[in-house]
Amino acid sequence: MAKAHTFTDNFNDNSINTSKWEAYGPVQEVNHRLEIRPDGGIANYAGCKSTAAYDLTDSFFHLEVRQALLQSAPTSETAFFARGPGTERILFSLGAGELSCGLNGTTLAHEPYDPERHRWWRMRESAGMLHWEVSANGREWNTLVSEPAPFTPTSLIVELQAGCYQPTSSPGVAIFDCFNTPPERLSRRAEERRLSAQATREQVARLAAERHHPEHFNNNDEVNYPDRPFIGSYSKGLKHDSVGDPDPISYGSLLRALESRDPGDFEEILQPSGALKLVNPQAGLTFELSGPDPQAVTQPPAPRFDSKRAAAEMGELYWMALARDVPFINYASEAGIANSIIERAIRSLTTEFPLFGGTPTVTAQNLFRGIFPGEQVGPYISQFLWKGNSDPRKPDGQGRDADEGFITYGSQVIDQRQWTVKGFPEIGAAADYMTQFATWLAVQNGRDDRGKDQFDTTRRRFIRNLRDGAQYVHFDQVVNAYLSAAFLLLSEPLGNQLTGMGASRPQVDKEFPCDQGNPYDPPGTASDSRTQVGFATFGPIQLMQLLGEVSGRAGRAVWWQKWGVHRRLRPEEYGGRVDNHLSSRRTYPLDSSILNSLSTGLLSPYFSERWGSFLLPQAYPEGAPLHPAYGAGHATLSGACATILKAYFDESAPIENPRIASADGTALVAYTGADAAQMTVGGELNKLAGNIALFRNAAGVHWRTDYSESLLLGERVALGLLLELSLTFNEDGAFFQFTRFDGSRVRVVDGRVEPA
């Protein structure tokens, strides 16, 4: 029988070799690697197993694990194992953030998973001993555990597997490569980029120069539909034909510029006369002098245009558009009314679109919400978007109590209420746009419809529904919300925020302590300085600097993903394909689930009768901005800023007296849900990030995946910046500590990340 190490596959031919592997479930060999994408929403496993058995004695199996399933999905598993003809099994398994080594059903060792240090997995037999080994580069190996072999491993089937043993929202993608083959060199383009970044930054930080640069892959939608070129890709602001499909020559001029990276080629992109300009396609080509290079972080491919996942995400967007004017405070009661929009949305997302990417069992509590820790606790809106900071020196009604919604910036005040847009029947207008095909087509060709919003000028209101949320993220610069949260956390005095703080002094006697790694705060701890306070380091100046700094770096990283990698179409463009298809103008390879729901299913009572088309109603007159959907700028910057705030403040501090906006948004009233006492600073910061990201979905300009993957991208940028910053401190024992979006707690100290 052949030795184990003679069984090789570099997965480079983009087609599973059926003489070597038997595949099951959603598995594909693509982009010169093996991708396993288990279905979300159901318990299932996918993978491939060898068609022949191999002899492991004095031999080995190894592979590169480029990406595991999301560790935020606690019921997901990524596994690599060899099994004998009976119950014999030699196993690597990764789940809930732990990499485990197993033998015949017994766990021999486990440790927190580090995707860099544990990039390569190897099982080896020598002289009757079995060894489980890991490597960062596929060359130098570290042994996790060794064990005498309880059987002779001469006839083993090897298997690569990923899946969920319970229904799981958005489990992600497992990516394997280099099975029993040496590590492959990076592509010429990626290698050139890595070396250029090192040369630019080697005087700044050795840590940054040695950071791994990944290769970037998209979903191949630019070549997936040769009979309908570029229908699955972003093209707004370029030229289109009479039904809104991209003009191949115009689209090709964009690709030429992105490939050449020549600034002159960007000036030659072919747009319709008078079209709005494309937004910053060269941003991701810049170099950074601190934090990760824009191309040193990446995102997995977005769902394909023809996929069931894309259709399910679009189904959620249609429901969000329909539910824009339903107050959050009414979701629970509306869910109990048969055939209300909320009840239908819950039913539709559960039955028609279970792969939409949220929690599989949809309820009034998690409808349209994010999936990360804290996002489904308490009201839909983060307290940081509603409450103000209390100040006993102020008059009643003008910021004395937190529920008045005023945040003090020194001597200036920010009102958490806003001018909202018309959209309620009593106002007499509906603020939904681009629902007529002629308007939609003109906007796709770059017509400038900005500034046509109709405002409700009767009074300012707290965010009460999805339309208000969409309005909030229409004109912001993203960092606004996090600066406000920072001022609130820095200045809230001790005591009851609603009934007086006694003698507590704002910005002096602090309600919310800093993280324990801060050498100056919280006072009274063992590490607290006897003679000093923080200001330019570990104080408000550094915090404000970091929020702005990480925003810019996160923005440039996600702009590379948008233009340089994925070029995912906007939901409004997908809606145009749907409208063309159902109106018989042209046919497309759309998944039947979205077509069925719109024509005969739960969405059909509203489309096309309400607006006269099947287009996705937009909250903004101009629809989406002129840059691709994936990743999302608001979501990436939110993930980065929330990470900075979580690293600075004590996440476990409770949020007292939670509030919720009244149905008309004129007041904040007490939130009395059973989970009111479970709200924390960390959870509400995660929720703030989710709110800012998903409000863009509510506007109709982003997808669910844009939120879920882009928050993680922003977190990676922030973590890279904190890593470099941690090398610069003069203070003894200083560190940053926070909970990642996947639920794991990490500490950043002296240029390394370790479990907290």
- Which regions have little confidence, pLDDT < 50, spanning 5+ residues? 424-429
Shape: globular
Please report which band the strand proportion falls in: under 5%, 5-15%, 15-25%, 25-35%, 35-45% or over 45%. Answer: 15-25%
Mean pLDDT: 92
Multimeric organization: single chain
Q: How many helical stretches?
A: 16
**Count of DSSP strands:** 21
Structural class: alpha+beta
Protein name: Vanadium-dependent haloperoxidase
At a glance:
InterPro entries: Br/Cl_peroxidase_C (IPR016119), PAP2/HPO_sf (IPR036938), V-haloperoxidase (IPR052559). The chain has 16 helices and 21 strands. It has helices at 188-201, 206-209, 248-260, 263-266, 308-322, 331-335, 341-351, 437-444, 466-475, 479-491, 540-566, 571-582, 592-599, 633-648, 681-699, 704-725; strands spanning 21-24, 27-30, 33-36, 44-50, 59-67, 76-83, 89-95, 98-103, 106-112, 120-126, 129-135, 142-148, 157-164, 174-177, 406-409, 412-415, 659-661, 668-670, 736-739, 745-749, 752-755.
Task: Describe the structure in your own words.
InterPro entries: Br/Cl_peroxidase_C, PAP2/HPO_sf, V-haloperoxidase. This is Vanadium-dependent haloperoxidase. It comes from Archangium lansingense. There is one protein chain. By secondary structure, this protein is of the alpha+beta class. Helices cover 27% and strands 15% of the residues. It has 16 helices and 21 strands. The chain has helices at residues 188-201, 206-209, 248-260, 263-266, 308-322, 331-335, 341-351, 437-444, 466-475, 479-491, 540-566, 571-582, 592-599, 633-648, 681-699, 704-725, and strands at 21-24, 27-30, 33-36, 44-50, 59-67, 76-83, 89-95, 98-103, 106-112, 120-126, 129-135, 142-148, 157-164, 174-177, 406-409, 412-415, 659-661, 668-670, 736-739, 745-749, 752-755. A seven-stranded antiparallel sheet has the order 1-4-13-6-7-8-9, with no helix packed on it. Strands 2-3-14-5-10-11-12 form a seven-stranded antiparallel sheet, with no helix packed on it. A three-stranded antiparallel sheet has the order 19-20-21. Strand 15 and strand 16 (412-415) form a beta hairpin. Helix 8 (437-444) crosses helix 12 (571-582) and helix 15 crosses helix 16 (704-725). The longest helix has 27 residues, at 540-566. The protein is globular and about 85 Å long. The relative contact order is 0.12. Mean pLDDT is 92; it is low at 424-429.
